[in-house]
Amino acid sequence: MNKGVLPAFQFSGGMIEKTFGIDYNPASEPSVKGTDRVVLTEDERRLEWYMNPELTKYLAAESVRGVSDEVLMLLKRTNHPRPWGLWDDTDDYVSRLAAQETAVHRGEAASILKVRAYYAASDNMIGKQGSQWFDGLWTEGACDGIIDFASCTCPGTTHDNIVDRKFGMLDEWAVTVAKSYAVGS
């Protein structure tokens, strides 16, 4: 992927842009009416458009050696009998995490772990059943009062575009993380 597909993809994309003189055109930017939660200025839209090829380079900059082994482990397809150790079953994950958090923090009110899940409105990877199953793991009993779980579906999004700023999820997440660090400092 890193050495074969991405360089060809980047080269062909660059050639197409240069050959056909493609330049930034805000009118050609796809938008789903009524779903844009963040209104970007013209400068922000232009910056994002120009940054995308650079971001792709950074994503592919590090070695991906061993990725296949990691995927096999995540799919539990390795020869190792318990590739995830004590965390072997996702269905047991939440109760184990709650027990670990309780042992570490001994029920301190300020140390409740907040977990937020953001789902795409249309996700071809997990579908509606995947998000329902994941939400079902975080029941009050499994969370044991030490984990505060909430999820939401971002309207108009897909698996591939949920982090586009215009949908607001990325900004919402960043603000939430920033607030948690401001409180703790």
Strand fraction equals 5-15%
**Span between termini:** 41 Å
Portion in helices: 40-55%
- Shape verdict: globular
Give the count of structural domains: 2
Number of strands: 2
Radius of gyration over alpha carbons? 21 Å
Determine the structural class based on helices, strands and strand pairing.
mainly alpha
**Major sheet summary line:** 2 strands, parallel
- Give the overall average pLDDT: 75
Number of helices: 7
Q: How are the strands of the biggest sheet laid out side by side? A: 1-2
- Show unreliable segments: 8-22
What's the order of the H and E elements?
A: HHHHEHHEH
What's the layout of helices and strands?
Layout: H1 5-20, H2 42-59, H3 67-74, H4 90-105, E1 113-122, H5 127-137, H6 140-143, E2 147-158, H7 169-184
Parallel strand pairs: 1-2
Tell me what you see in this structure.
With 185 residues, the protein is mostly helical. It has two domains: 1-65, no CATH class; 89-185. The protein has helices at 5-20, 42-59, 67-74, 90-105, 127-137, 140-143, 169-184, and strands spanning 113-122, 147-158. It has a two-stranded parallel ribbon. The longest helix is centred in the N-terminal third of the chain and has 18 residues, at 42-59. It is globular, with a radius of gyration of 21 Å. Mean pLDDT is 75; it is low at 8-22.
Structural key phrases:
single chain; 185 residues; mainly alpha; 2 domains; two-stranded parallel sheet; 7 helices; 2 strands; 12% strand
Quick structural overview:
This protein is mostly helical.
